[in-house]
Amino acid sequence: MRYPAAVLFFCCTAALLCGQDDVIQAAREGSPSLATMLPTALPALNGNGPMKAGVLTNGQDFLFALNNDATEAGVMIDGVMRPLSKTGSLWYRLEKLNAGMTHKYQFYAGGKALGMPGDIGGYNPDAMPKAGVPQGTLSEKMTITSKIYNGMKADYWIYATAGVDPAKPAALMVWQDGQNLINRNRGKRLLTVTDNLVAQKLIPPMVQVLIAPGFSPENRPMRSIEYDTVTDAYPRFLMEEVLPEVEKRYKLREDGYSRAIGGESSGAICAFNAAWFMPEKFARVHSTIGSYTSIQWRPQEKLEGGNVYPFKVRKEPKRNIRVWLSDGADDLENNHGSWPLQNIQMANSLKMREYDYHFRFGTAAHNGSQETIDLPESLTWLWRGYDAAKTSETFTMDPAEKDKPYYRVRISNRDAW
Which CATH class is domain 17-122? Predict the structure, then answer.
């Protein structure tokens, strides 16, 4: 689905830009230069809306900044109110917070809360550039015109990690919403994480296809139609149209054992959908804040939506796939359904059928904060045990998972009666 304004706010404000070390040091020293550095490091401070605020992170350093003309301002961090200091016309506060977990925050000015609460994750060490680790090669932007989607045009990029030989078939991972992943210094820092994990031999050298949602010939967004519809159209689009173009540059392994697919939100159900319809081509699934809801459920047209997947998993023949699944308690609740409850349903369904799965359920809202801190672990888990000499493996549930109970829900934010 399309992100609400609060989520777009997170995606912008959590961005790490070049020179963040200098900005953090200026904040630490209380330097007057911080007033001119902050608007460049956090473009959200220059916005036109009522909420001009951002967070810059670097390891355990979290720099909160606000552009507001109030006489006093603060930020609530993990339930504790902390005052902001003034630099020029801006407010700021530098905090040491735990990396590897999400933190809730909300800005205040003049004693009133501003905007919606947010949450942000601290980067793990494997999301940071490391000396001596070779970087892969990112292609230029390319565009494909689809016959399956009646003339839709979609942009995509190819990232080949170190160790990929264009003449030898390589492992593959496809990512939806690829336009958000091509900058190694922003967001989930996929390219940096991948480089570090390949160097540690925790995942194989691979070709990653970063594909953006397309637009129809009439310039209509096709993201939800591509991602949220439960049919084989999107996996066919990949197999019949996209990957043949990729193979003009790099040879790819054809076995599903050597292929993964991932995404967040509607991109996550899209990834699961591809593996569900073509497990022999995509056997590893990376799903975060998945939209297993009724966005494209159209019973009058006999079209299923993602809301059916928990029940399809329980009742249809079992697929040989491995699934990393994550969500947060503060995810969306709207007319399409409940993201947290549907992801819990998915986890219980996968457990019931003894799939090889892992479920991470935190407190995050509908954004990438949980995925950001999980990414080194989740990719390592997804590719664990990979052997390039093999073309198949029967994925089985971890024995430790078999002994665990199903997930149960308790109401935490109001009386239950």
Answer: mainly beta
Q: Are 213 and 223 in contact (CB under 8 A)?
A: yes
**What pLDDT, on the 0 to 100 scale, is given for residue 115?**
86
What is the four-CA torsion angle of 351, 228, 232, 189, rounded to 10 degrees? Answer: -80
**What six digits make up the tokens of 73?**
């301002």
How far CA 67 is from CA of 8, 34, 281, in Å, comes to: 18, 13, 49
Q: Where in the chain is the domain with CATH 2.60.40.2450?
A: 17-122
Q: For domain 127-402, which architecture applies?
A: 3-Layer(aba) Sandwich (3.40)
pLDDT (0 to 100) of residue 59:
78
Tokens of 152: 């839709």
Q: Kindly report the backbone phi and psi dihedral angles of residue 165, in degrees, each rounded to the nearest multiple of 5, phi listed first.
A: -100, 115
Q: What is the pLDDT of residues 82-91, one digit of tens each?
A: 999 999 999 9
Could you tell me which residues come within 8 angstroms of residue 211 by beta carbon, excluding any fewer than 6 positions away?
Answer: 154, 155, 156, 157, 174, 175, 176, 178, 242
Is the CB of residue 261 less than 8 Å from the CB of residue 286? yes
Angle between helices 34-41 and 20-29 (to 10 degrees): 150
Going by C-beta distance under 8 Å and a sequence separation of 6 or more, which residues neighbour residue 79? Answer: 104
Phi, psi torsion values for 157, nearest 5 degrees: -130, 155
What whole-number distance in Å separates Cα of residue 8 and Cα of residue 405?
36
CA dist., res. 42 & res. 135, Å (int):
26
| Burial 35-48, CB ≥16 within 10 A → b, else e | eebbbebbebbebe
pTM: 0.84
What string of DSSP letters covers 117-154?
Answer: -EEEEPPPGGGS--TTPPP-EEPPPEEEE-TTTTT-EE
- Which residues have a Cβ under 8 Å from the Cβ of 382 and sit 6 or more positions away? 260, 284, 285, 286, 322, 324
